[in-house]
Amino acid sequence: MQNIxxxxxxxxxxxxxMCDWCYARKILGKNQNMNFDLARQIVKYLKTxxxxxxxxxxxxxxxxxxxxxxxKYIKEQGLKIRIATNGxxxxxxxxxxxxxxxxxxxxxxxxxGFSEQEYLLNTHQVGLEDAITGYHNLKSLxxxxxxxxxxxxxxxxxxxxxxxxxxxxxxxNLVIQFEKPSLKIxxxxxxxxxxxxxxxxxxxxxTLEKNNFNYTIELSFPLCFIEKDVLQEMLKKGRVSTCCYxxxxxxxxxxxxxxxxxxxxxxxxxxxxxxxxxxxxxAIEELMDSEIVKKFKNTVKRFPSSRCxxxxxxxxxxxxxxTRWFYIDPKDYIDANV
Length: 338
Fold this sequence. Notes:
Strand order of the largest sheet: 8-7-6-5-4-3-2-1-9-10
Largest sheet: 10 strands, mixed
Oligomer: single chain
Structural class: alpha/beta
């Protein structure tokens, strides 16, 4: 089935945080859970299409009422299962033990701040200590979770404090991300300027190298904004991840109602108004061959600048997250970045 090998399943529109930068923040108040029978049907269908990995997202998947049953079913189908979570529920060792026994293949815990106060400021809930406890509970069971952290215009000046917290709390295996735009009703984006992202990436790289962390930096902006010598060293050390599944065409995302969306930053904007027809064995192929998806793919894969056409790193860079160009003109950035 084309190049699709992984799927993301939105288990719920419910969360025990309310992060300011969350792609789902506009709809979390719905407190909606994916119907378990629908979830099973999607998983069964995906298996017939050769999908080998399913990642559970939300909302917050660990508070999905059928989380353990769903994990068990996915594993029974012979598929890998990963969870993207804030990690707070793993403070309960009994729950962590159940997740371990369910043989989950990967867990990423998103840390929302360097202190309980900042965590509360960013998420409107307390939870840093719970997440740290959850991380170590999983580690004690033999699970190696990764830690993700989103750099924003509001917290970049406190990155040093975040690193101190990581060292003190013995957290490692990091994925550093930059805030990405989500479709907003007001048509604006308040993410960090991509020129600042480039400069700050150099600082992140030097800081994490100095402290001997195991990490990658997810670069969702054009690589030409990073100092060349720094970028080459980052690539040499394997510290860079780029080009998401949307640009590569390797993934598919289902919302809580079973509708296919372009990516999780398009929550509430499915390709079609109806859920994918799981009774039609060619439903995904037909959807991917539809005019709306073709138009979307052409938008995603186009060069944001003529300079990108000549760039030797285009196959790695991909022009960054395409959603950034919904709000800013590439000519004002890439073309001006001489």
